[in-house]
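S1.2 Input.
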Amino acid sequence: MEGLAVFGGVAAACTLSVEMIKLGRSLRKMVKSIKYARRDIIGALTSARKYEYSWVETLTAHMKWYLSRASVKYFRASLKVARESIQAYTNIRCIEKLDEQLDMLKKAIENGAEQSLEKELKIKVVERMNTVKQQM
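S1.3 Output.
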């Protein structure tokens, strides 16, 4: 039995020594951080900060920003022109379709097929012609 007690004491001492080493390391890190904290705080509060980039790099970055801004304006203008062109094209196509419908209605009146077309459209041909003209 005494052998087990001795073995238990040795195991406890090994475990305790490992924990003491970890505690010592963490205390050393804390002391260092406290030791240099004063210097770090005064360095952070100073008004004379060091710049990371040289004036050439700063100038280059400003030029890139300016040029990219100009290109964005150019692309916006291009998109606006494209949108207006698409709208104009669709308007022209709609007017052409309405012209075709109007021509078809006029031919139906001329050929005497007005009644069959009225049955198909379920509206009088003259009324349909007026609505097509209004849409134009």
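S1.4 Remarks. Residues 1-44 form one domain.
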